């Protein structure tokens, strides 16, 4: 406790009073550094007293400052729930020390806010979004001048997001008022602590204290079978032992299902983001009081909300990421210096291997790095608007100065110029030479855009047939994808859109089996490349026992692999990609993780779509992609594409093709909102959004959509690296029969790649029209047979059933009477001309068969035109393009219009 | 008579005695209305006008027909329109004679027009072809003529088997049911026999053709022979009768 001795006696007294007999490693290391005024990032597992590590020396500092005069310390957390938690802990300390404390976030009542504006508390607990609001009021801005400390809790959670990017600018805006203040970041374990430090402090020197997590962890992996009933039985048994358990699941649906199955226990509750705040707080409280022993939860419980003692953590299904596992298991043994015990329940072959890899990496402290969200143009636009409102008028160079101090926007001068120009396009600011001037709209914009979290409206889906609401879709999904006649999947069923009206989607059930549309409601956590790769290593080496002692797991994995061998299936590994034909299309087994597979799968879809003119559906997970294709395109065709793919072209291919996808439109709308182009509550249904989005071509808005998609949503670089390894023959590509591995997984349905040009859709329409056209076939040999049919039923080589001749004329239905005319024994000049036309028609059919019949069915195409078209020798789409050309000429003439 | 389909408009050139360039639904000033719906863009009038001038450059017409809804705001003029309309119209009339057939959005446009430019709201025949904006019952003068109208902003959506749409401005050519027994004899006999619905020149206006047919919202769209109407893309590609668009659901 010697670190405490240098603190103010009042603080020392409180520490004793609170019953601290010793300090944790985190506290021992961090307190002296903070006392010395160093910026600090403290990285330690949950429950090692991080908050106290930061606050003891901060209290010490606050006591030495004169009373009143504004906020002196900000404590920023990413969640309101955490704010409440921290507040209840701080109230005791501040009460004892004679300091004032307040909380301010979205839920804070007006009265409380006014009080804070009149007499600001010494310590303000708040969220990043509310920090934004502090700059909006004149009086509040004055209160910022005294700030000496800013503590950012769960900084790892913010650093990789646009919320964090926004906060990093806010801290530099604060610097303008308060000068240098001390920055303290509290973080869970990450792979790259120095980046977190840079995020918090920019170029300023920043100390990092790291308490390794591995020695506190004890993780085992248990294979529980792939049958849900059996899984719940195993879980039920596991919950019967002493103590309290947190059960983490990956989706809300699983949370609900488990909660339902374990309902009989009576001491189990469910906790996830779709439940109301009251229900969640109630569950937390009851768990804390020991009234319930088990809480089934999603990532909603990951961050450090205090729920009291947790004896054990069960992760149901693979945790997907090492960081997530460490964070979740870290919730167990929520007291200093105790070991966190966790068990992963693995539910299948992929799941087992993945869990084993992740558990091993967790023990080896190999945690994923946080990727900072650099140069996000929409964040920049949001902050330029905020600064414009804050100052009314400001030199662009002064804004640049603020931005350059952050780690995320250093070197952003060109981007800033582009952003300002674009914002003026949407009348959010005015540029007057080098000055930025606020507009009447900017303040209104800001009050509905304080947050970079995308607040999505849910659009109800109403089934016309059963006359009930069957679910909701994200607004962005509706905007980007849904039009009258569109088919999509929700609740495991196919629906067709009948109408979009009054903010509701009216649908009917449909049976059309193709066309799976994506939904981004998904809580799919991507499996990183390194994890998927190592799963490939286990598949290759089959050294499962290096990873686990669990007999069930080893036995199951061995049995699975030998079953594959027995079927003579190829086992895809880190060195082998296998391609399989299945009923639905081609499966590509690639151990590369979600994001790289997303990039690779899309590139393949685009190339197939371009080459074969067909729409390609794409489903994928971390280990395989299913390309939904017409049965004429086989695995061998996909292999050829993969082998000839140039890795340097992939990014360019994606850019071109992404533009036509729903995903891109969705991103574009989100970003356009941050630029003030679209109000957060704008009603799109009334306007043809399709072409509105073209307004963003070649703008910084479009550029940002690409940047975000290509870096956050998919991983082009890794995908290109894999393709390069294929080129160097370090990864082989082979064809194999449809296998157990190939058939597994694939829960997440994704986007579709439409064919590249409108051409295809137009030609498809033309083909369909011509096929349905009526045609009269008439024998010009015996002149005694005619038959009316539709083009699609005409045989390849039309023949007269009476005389067997192949001299068959193809007439348009309205010319049918001409046939009667030519049978007249005596003909006038006009009739002889008609006869000549019919003979010519028959001659063309004789030489070109059905193809001639098709050409002759086209609008305004007679024998002359048809023989010209057939004379071009064009085949396939080119043939139909010739027909289109002829029709185009025809409708320009007087004959068509009179 | 010869027709040219100008994709860059969409615009139409009809050549008889004269070379007429026809554009419909310019909707200058639409940005104010977009803003009221929460979509904020600077005026695109300049860009739109420039596009029209380019079409004039490339087609070299003798006269220009503005087929209504030249401006956007109703029921009154906006500040934007006061400032922009005179300049827009001047830049056009210095190049060639104008014929303006006022549409439902053209409230107050008279003040910007010169003598002889304004044509009857219920249409007139120019060089053998009937023109009107399309929101009113056509004048008997148009009986028996091909009539070109705006007002409907037809937009074609093509879908392939997976449901991905191509959307393109399109023309709709239809016969007019002059024998509708529900209508009075006097109206029937005075109707035009064929009507061509033009797509809008304004780059963001567009309305699904199937919706126009399902829920007609003008006298001529109610009277057109739906089964026979034919669709042509902005570039003159003949798409054909409606049934070509409806995919086979039973399979």
Structural notes for this entry:
The complex is a heterodimer of chains A (898) and B (251). Chain A has 898 residues and is of the alpha/beta class. Chain A folds into six domains: 209 residues, Rossmann fold (3-Layer(aba) Sandwich), CATH 3.40.50; 150 residues, Rossmann fold (3-Layer(aba) Sandwich); 72 residues, Winged helix-like DNA-binding domain superfamily/Winged helix DNA-binding domain (Arc Repressor Mutant, subunit A, Orthogonal Bundle), CATH 1.10.10; 52 residues, no CATH class; 190 residues, no CATH class; 137 residues, no CATH class. In chain A, 45% of the residues lie in helices and 17% in strands. Chain A has 37 helices and 30 strands. In chain A, α5 links the parallel β3 and β4. In chain A, α14 crosses α15 and α33 crosses α34. The longest helix of chain A has 20 residues. Chain A is elongated. The termini of chain A are far apart. About 2% of the residues of chain A have low confidence. With 251 residues, chain B is an alpha/beta fold. Chain B has one domain: Purple Acid Phosphatase, chain A, domain 2. Chain B contains six helices and 14 strands. In chain B, the strands form two sheets. In chain B, strands 6, 7, 8, 9, 10, 11, 12, 13 and 14 form a nine-stranded mixed sheet that branches. In chain B, strands 1-2-3-4-5 form a five-stranded mixed sheet, with helices on one face. The longest helix of chain B is centred in the N-terminal third of the chain and has 15 residues. The radius of gyration of chain B is 18 Å and the shape is globular. Chains A and B meet through α27, α31 and α36 of A and β1, β9, β10, β12 and β14 of B.
Descriptive terms for the model:
heterodimer, A: 898 residues, alpha/beta, Rossmann fold, Arc Repressor Mutant, subunit A, 6 domains, seven-stranded parallel beta sheet, six-stranded parallel beta sheet, 30 strands, 17% strand, B: 251 residues, Purple Acid Phosphatase, chain A, domain 2, nine-stranded mixed beta sheet, five-stranded mixed beta sheet, 6 helices, 21% helix
């Amino acid at each position: 406790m010697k670190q405490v001795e240098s603190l103010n006696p009042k603080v020392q007294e409180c520490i004793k009073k609170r019953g601290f007999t010793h300090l944790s490693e985190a506290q021992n290391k961090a307190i002296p550094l903070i006392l010395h005024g160093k910026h600090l990032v403290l990285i330690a597992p949950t429950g090692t007293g991080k908050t106290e590590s930061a606050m003891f020396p901060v209290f010490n500092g606050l006591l030495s400052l004169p009373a009143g005069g504004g906020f002196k310390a900000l404590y920023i957390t990413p969640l309101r729930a955490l704010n409440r938690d921290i507040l209840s802990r701080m109230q005791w300390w501040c009460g004892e020390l004679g300091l004032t404390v307040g909380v301010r976030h979205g839920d804070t009542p007006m009265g409380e806010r006014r009080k804070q504006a009149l007499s600001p508390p010494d310590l303000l607990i708040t969220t990043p979004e509310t920090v934004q609001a502090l700059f909006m009021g004149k009086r509040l801005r004055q209160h910022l001048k005294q700030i000496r400390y800013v503590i950012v809790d769960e900084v790892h959670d913010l650093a990789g997001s646009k919320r964090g990017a926004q906060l990093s600018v806010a801290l530099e805006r604060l610097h303008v008022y308060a000068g240098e203040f001390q920055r303290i970041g509290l973080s869970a374990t990450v792979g790259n602590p120095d980046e977190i430090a840079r995020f918090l402090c920019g170029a300023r020197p920043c100390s990092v204290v790291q308490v390794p997590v591995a020695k506190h962890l004890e993780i085992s992996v248990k294979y529980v079978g792939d049958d849900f009933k059996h899984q719940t039985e195993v879980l039920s048994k596991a919950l019967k032992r002493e103590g309290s358990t947190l059960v983490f699941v990956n989706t809300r649906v699983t949370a609900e299902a488990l909660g339902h199955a374990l309902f009989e226990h009576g001491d189990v509750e469910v906790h996830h983001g779709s439940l109301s705040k009251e229900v969640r707080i109630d569950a937390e409280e009851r768990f804390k009081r020991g009234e319930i022993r088990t809480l089934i939860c999603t990532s909603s419980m990951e961050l450090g909300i205090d729920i009291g003692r947790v004896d054990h953590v069960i992760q149901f299904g693979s945790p997907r990421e090492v960081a997530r596992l460490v964070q979740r298991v870290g919730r167990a043994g929520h007291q200093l210096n105790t070991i966190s015990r966790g068990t992963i329940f693995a539910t299948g072959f992929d799941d087992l291997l993945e869990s084993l890899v992740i558990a091993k990496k967790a023990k080896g402290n190999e945690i994923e790095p946080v990727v900072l969200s650099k140069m996000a143009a929409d964040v920049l636009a949001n902050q330029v608007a905020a600064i414009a409102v804050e100052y009314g008028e400001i030199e662009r160079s002064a804004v640049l100065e603020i931005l350059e101090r952050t780690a995320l926007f250093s070197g952003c001068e060109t981007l800033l110029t582009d952003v300002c120009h674009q914002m003026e396009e949407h009348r959010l600011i005015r540029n007057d030479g080098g000055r930025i001037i606020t507009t009447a709209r900017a303040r209104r914009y800001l009050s509905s855009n304080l947050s970079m979290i995308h607040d999505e409206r849910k659009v109800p889906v109403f089934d016309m047939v059963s006359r009930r609401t069957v679910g909701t879709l994200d607004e962005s999904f509706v905007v980007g994808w849904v039009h009258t006649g569109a088919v999509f999947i929700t609740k495991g069923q196919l629906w067709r859109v009948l109408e979009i009206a009054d903010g509701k989607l009216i649908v009917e059930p449909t049976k059309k089996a193709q066309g799976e549309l994506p939904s981004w409601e998904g809580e799919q956590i991507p499996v990183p490349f390194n994890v998927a790769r190592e799963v490939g290593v286990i598949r290759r080496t089959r050294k499962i026992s290096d990873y686990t002692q669990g007999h069930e797991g080893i036995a199951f994995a061995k049995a699975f692999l030998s079953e594959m061998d027995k079927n003579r299936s190829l086992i895809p590994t880190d060195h082998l990609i296998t391609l399989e034909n299945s009923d639905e299309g081609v499966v590509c087994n690639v151990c590369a993780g979600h994001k790289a597979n997303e990039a690779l799968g899309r590139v393949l879809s685009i190339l197939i779509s371009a080459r074969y003119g067909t729409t390609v559906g794409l489903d994928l997970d971390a280990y395989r992609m299913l390309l939904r294709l017409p049965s004429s395109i086989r695995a061998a065709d996909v292999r050829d594409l993969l082998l000839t793919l140039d890795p340097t072209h992939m990014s360019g291919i994606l850019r071109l093709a992404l533009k036509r996808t729903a995903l891109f439109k969705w991103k574009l709308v989100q970003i356009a909102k941050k630029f003030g182009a679209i109000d957060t509550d704008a009603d799109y249904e009334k306007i043809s959004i399709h072409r509105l989005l073209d307004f963003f071509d070649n703008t910084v808005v479009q550029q940002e959509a690409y940047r975000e998609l290509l870096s956050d949503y998919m991983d082009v670089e890794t995908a290109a690296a894999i393709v390069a390894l294929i080129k160097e023959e370090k990864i082989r590509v082979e064809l194999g029969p449809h296998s157990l591995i190939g058939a597994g997984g694939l829960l997440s349905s994704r986007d579709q790649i439409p064919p590249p040009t409108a051409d295809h859709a137009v030609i498809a329409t033309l083909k369909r029209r011509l096929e349905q056209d009526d045609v009269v076939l008439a024998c010009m040999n015996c002149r005694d047979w005619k038959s009316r049919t539709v083009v699609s039923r005409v045989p390849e080589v039309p023949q007269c059933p009476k005389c067997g001749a192949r001299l068959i004329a193809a007439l348009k239905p309205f010319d049918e009477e001409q046939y009667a005319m030519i049978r007249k024994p005596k003909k006038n000049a006009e009739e002889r001309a008609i006869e000549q036309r019919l003979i010519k028609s028959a001659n063309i059919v004789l030489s070109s068969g059905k193809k001639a019949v098709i050409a002759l069915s086209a609008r305004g195409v007679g024998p002359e035109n048809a023989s010209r078209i057939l004379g071009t020798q064009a085949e396939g789409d080119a043939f139909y393009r010739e027909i289109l050309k002829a029709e185009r000429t025809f409708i320009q003439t007087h004959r068509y219009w009179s | 008579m010869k027709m040219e389909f100008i994709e860059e408009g969409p615009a139409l050139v009809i050549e008889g005695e004269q070379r007429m360039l026809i554009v419909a639904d310019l909707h200058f000033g639409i940005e104010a209305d977009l803003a009221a719906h929460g979509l904020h863009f600077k005026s695109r009038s300049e860009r739109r006008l420039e596009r029209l001038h380019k079409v004039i450059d490339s087609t070299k017409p003798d006269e220009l027909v503005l087929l209504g809804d030249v401006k956007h705001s109703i029921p009154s003029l906006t500040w934007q329109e006061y400032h922009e309309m005179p300049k827009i119209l001047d830049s056009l009339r210095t190049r060639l004679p104008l014929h303006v057939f006022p549409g439902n959005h053209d409230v107050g446009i008279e003040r910007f027009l010169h003598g002889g430019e304004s044509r009857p709201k219920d249409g007139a025949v120019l060089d053998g072809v009937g023109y009107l904006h399309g929101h009113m019952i056509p004048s008997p003068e148009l009986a028996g003529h091909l009539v070109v109208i705006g007002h409907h902003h037809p937009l074609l959506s093509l879908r392939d088997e997976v449901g991905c749409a191509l959307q393109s401005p399109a023309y709709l050519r239809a016969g007019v049911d002059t024998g509708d027994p529900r209508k009075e004899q006097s109206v029937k006999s005075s109707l035009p026999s064929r009507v061509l619905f033009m797509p809008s020149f304004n780059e963001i206006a567009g309305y699904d053709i199937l919706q126009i047919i399902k829920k007609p919202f003008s006298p001529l769209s109610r009277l057109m022979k739906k089964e026979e109407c034919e669709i042509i893309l902005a570039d003159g590609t003949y798409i054909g009768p409606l049934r070509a668009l409806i995919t086979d659901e039973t399979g």
